[in-house]
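Input (structure):
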């Protein structure tokens, strides 16, 4: 990691490698390109899509409570989606549609098979709608529509495939977050705090950073494709300094390496925290099992999966196609320069947190260096 920082790949990073009870945390570089604040284990990051597994765990808690059922139709809580239309051709015009043949279910949202979201074809007309009307791109919390208005907009957007008959990325987690808040009649942030963050001791995780901790939030950058220099996207007093109008279940959380590790231990310990059980082992098994067919997980099948399968809210290694793959490894990558994976069979965890926006779904060279370096340990 020090080599990567010295080479200018990222201004800094905090990484964790845990095997059993042996935990190593390494912090290198700085919060910003000016080098004013060194990284340490308490540095807060915008974790983007590694929010998704946490939202999936919350959903399973409500399922176990009896407030939801995996096969329940989402229109029970989201009537805006009672009669969705489906594109006849995912790459075709937005007015060439047909009615959905079945309702979208809760499990469809968890497995990204509901029909809303991205595919590998970034030139499709629907991509402009997803990125610009629904803000389903890089995290932009202060510019999102509030949930009610966002749902009204989403209801006008056709599905890319019939519910249950395809795999599309990202939007399912945002929709799931809205549904969970409605099912529990609680704000999503409050619900997460009550059911996940407080029981696990995740004191630095949420949709905004309190003023007393904002000095620990790393700056967030993109790399200019022409000059190769870092461009500031958000500073410590920027978009995550105040609560967002839309708490994004797809990628809105901030967290630390220690907090995400506490969540990882929940999965390693089959849903238990000491003597207290937050999830059943069966729920954790469902989260960490592949629910996607070979058509989508095969190399080249979908650029987001890149050979992985998909569980509930995260990817699952089903083939050893990369040096760092382990069968059953569960987790994901965040577009702000983050990744986190849990391997239950060996009780191992790998977390990489940095602050540079990925240039695309496969631009993860720094993460690959970390994964490669820790693959055999």
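Output (sequence):
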């Amino acid at each position: 990691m020090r080599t990567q920082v010295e080479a200018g790949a990222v201004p800094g990073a905090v990484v964790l490698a845990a095997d059993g009870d042996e935990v190593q945390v390494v912090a290198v570089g700085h919060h910003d390109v000016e080098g004013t604040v060194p990284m340490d284990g308490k540095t807060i990051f915008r974790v983007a899509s590694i929010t998704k597994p946490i939202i999936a765990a919350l959903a399973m808690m409500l399922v176990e409570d009896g407030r939801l059922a995996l096969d329940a139709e989402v229109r029970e809580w989201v009537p805006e989606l009672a009669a969705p239309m489906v594109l006849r051709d995912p790459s075709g015009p937005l007015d060439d549609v047909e009615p959905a043949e079945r309702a979208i279910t809760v499990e469809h949202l968890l497995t990204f098979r509901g029909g809303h979201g991205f595919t590998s074809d970034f030139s499709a007309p629907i991509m402009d709608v997803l990125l610009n009307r629904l803000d389903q791109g890089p995290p932009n919390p202060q510019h999102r529509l509030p949930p009610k208005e966002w749902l009204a907009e989403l209801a006008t957007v056709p599905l890319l495939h019939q519910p249950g008959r395809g795999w599309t990325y990202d939007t399912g987690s945002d929709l799931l977050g809205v549904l969970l808040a409605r099912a529990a009649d609680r704000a999503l942030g409050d619900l997460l705090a009550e059911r996940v963050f407080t029981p696990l001791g995740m004191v630095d995780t949420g949709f905004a950073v309190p003023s007393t901790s904002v000095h620990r939030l790393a700056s967030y950058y993109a790399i200019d494709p022409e000059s190769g220099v870092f461009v500031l996207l958000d500073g410590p007093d920027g978009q995550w300094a105040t609560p967002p109008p839309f708490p994004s279940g797809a990628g809105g959380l901030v967290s630390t390496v220690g907090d995400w590790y506490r969540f990882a231990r929940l999965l390693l310990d089959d849903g238990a925290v000491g003597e207290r059980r937050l999830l059943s082992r069966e729920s954790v098994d469902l989260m960490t099992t592949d629910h996607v067919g070979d058509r989508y997980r095969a190399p080249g099948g979908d650029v987001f999966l890149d050979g992985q399968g998909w569980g509930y809210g995260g990817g699952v290694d089903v083939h050893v196609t990369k040096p760092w793959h382990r069968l059953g490894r569960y987790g994901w990558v965040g577009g702000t320069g983050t990744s986190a994976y849990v391997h239950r069979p060996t009780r191992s965890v790998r977390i990489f947190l940095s602050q540079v926006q990925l240039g695309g779904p496969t631009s993860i060279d720094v993460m690959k260096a970390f994964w490669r370096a820790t693959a055999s340990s």
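Notes: The chain has two domains: 2-60+192-374, 68-184. Residues 335 and 358 are 5 Å apart (CA to CA).
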